[in-house]
Amino acid sequence: MEFTLLQKRWLNVRVVSFTPVFALLFAFANATVSVAADHAPECIAYGRNIPVNNQQVLHWKRTTSNQFRERAHIQGVVVDVFPDKNGHEHFEINIGKHGEDVIEVIYNQDFGAVPNVRVGMEVEACGDYITSTAPSGPYPASPSGAIIHWVHMNPKHRGHEAGFMMIDGTLYGWDIENAGPKKPRPDRHPKPRKPKPRNH
I want to staple 104 with a disulfide (CB 3.0 to 4.6 A). Which of 17, 80, 147, 149 is the partner? Predict the structure, then answer.
């Protein structure tokens, strides 16, 4: 089928004018997919989704005894980074208006790598809150006086509710394909050896 010169010009103008529109739609679709991939999962406690509860967490920190446990969903800014311990990231975020309104976040690296955590990063975390003002078994007191841990998925779907962590808008702790220990860890509580009988 032959096109006249006028038809060819009209087709060319139509294609050129629509190309930016399609490019914008494609870019928007990709951006939407990216945002959806890093959307925070629900933070479940007792079968219901809980919103960010910073004030409740600060109340628990001020009023509960050592080892009090509850479900928490917090949001704040990194103010200190602690040394890595046994494959866990430890850092402190401020979740209130005052300098002492801090909580230690403990993240298990078995559930995916995280970026190099730095002061000023924004964090949202869902997990198990524990008041930690004194040592408990092998665990020392938290320098923040409280912790949130289990901020990752639960591949076994029993025992703990799943948690999550977002740093600067990116979701961590849900690396399903790579979840689980990467290398054997030493037993924290080795069994005492029985003494060998002596021959007389």
Answer: 147
